[in-house]
C-alpha cells in the first residue's frame, strides 16, 4: 500500500482558492488518487479521484503531477462550509483491498 | 436513494458488557468496510468485506472484536467485554466496485464505554 504525506493543517481565507497538497511517492501504476473530506461529526465524503490526468467536478479540481508522486486538491472559492479534514488515499483500480487513510489535512476557512 | 445507515447513532455501555453495532450498506454495494475514529484521531481501518471472499480482518485490534455480514448486505460489528479504550465513533462504509470505486460512509455510531 502506498503511503501518503499531507500537511497537518492549513488556513485559507473565505473566497480564496484552497490548495491542499499530498505526496504519494510510492503510488503504484494501478492506483488512483482519491480525495475525501470529513466535516466535523460526520462520516467522510468522497470529493474526486484521478489516475494521471487532471480532473474537475462540481466540488473541486485535482492536479496530479506527471510522475504521479504528488497531487493537489483545489477548492477554487473556499467557503466556511469547506472547513474539514481532507484525506488523500491511493486506491487500486481493480481488485479487493482495504481503503486506508492517513492523518489528513485539517483545513480551516477563515471569514 | 438511501445512503449507508448505522444504528444505534449513540451507545453508552458499561465496561465488560458486549455491544452490537449495525450497518445497512447501500443496496447493491458489494464491498463493506468498518472503521473507528477515536476523539481527535484519524480513521482506523478495522475490517473489509468484499462479495463472497473471506473478509480482511487485519485491522481488528483484538479478539474481542468480530464482524459478520449476512446475505451480502447488513453487517454487525460485535465488541465483547468492552473496555474504556473502545470508546470511539464506529464508521461503516460501502462501495459498488471491487476497489477503485467511490466509498460512501454512514453517519457512524458513537460508542461510550463507562
What's the average pLDDT of chain A?
Answer: 91
Helical content of chain B stands at under 10%
Looking at how many chains there are and whether they match, the oligomeric state comes to heterodimer
What is the tally of beta strands of chain A?
Answer: 9
Write a structural description.
The complex is a heterodimer of chains A (111) and B (114). With 111 residues, chain A is mostly beta strands. Helices cover 0% and strands 47% of the residues of chain A. Chain A has a five-stranded mixed β-sheet with strand order 1-9-8-3-4, with no helix packed on it. The model of chain A has no long low-confidence stretch (mean pLDDT 91). In chain B, the strands form two sheets. In chain B, strands 2, 4, 5, 8, 9 and 10 form a six-stranded mixed β-sheet that branches. Chain B starts with a strand and ends with a strand. The interface between A and B is medium-sized, with 25 and 26 residues.
Amino acid at each position: 500500500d502506498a503511503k501518503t504525506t499531507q500537511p497537518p493543517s492549513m488556513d485559507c481565507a473565505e473566497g480564496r482558492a484552497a490548495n491542499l497538497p499530498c505526496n504519494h511517492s510510492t503510488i503504484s501504476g494501478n492506483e488512483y488518487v482519491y480525495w475525501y473530506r470529513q466535516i466535523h461529526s460526520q462520516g467522510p465524503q468522497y470529493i474526486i479521484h484521478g489516475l494521471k490526468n487532471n480532473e474537475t467536478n462540481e466540488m473541486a479540481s485535482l492536479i496530479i503531477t506527471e510522475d504521479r508522486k504528488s497531487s493537489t486538491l483545489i477548492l477554487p472559492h473556499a467557503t466556511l462550509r469547506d472547513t474539514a479534514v481532507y484525506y488523500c488515499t491511493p486506491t487500486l483500480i481493480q481488485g479487493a483491498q482495504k481503503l486506508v487513510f492517513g492523518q489528513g489535512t485539517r483545513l480551516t476557512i477563515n471569514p | 436513494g438511501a445512503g449507508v445507515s448505522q444504528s444505534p447513532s449513540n451507545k453508552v455501555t458499561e465496561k465488560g458488557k458486549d455491544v452490537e453495532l449495525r450497518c445497512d450498506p447501500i443496496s447493491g454495494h458489494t464491498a463493506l468496510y468498518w472503521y473507528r475514529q477515536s476523539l481527535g484521531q484519524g480513521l482506523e481501518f478495522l475490517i473489509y468485506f468484499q462479495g463472497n471472499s473471506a473478509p480482511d480482518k487485519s485491522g481488528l485490534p483484538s479478539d474481542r472484536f468480530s464482524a459478520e455480514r449476512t446475505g451480502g448486505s447488513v453487517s454487525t460489528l460485535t465488541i465483547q467485554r468492552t473496555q474504556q479504550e473502545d470508546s470511539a465513533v464506529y464508521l461503516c462504509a460501502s462501495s459498488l466496485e471491487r476497489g477503485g470505486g467511490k466509498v460512501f460512509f454512514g453517519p457512524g455510531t458513537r460508542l461510550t464505554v463507562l
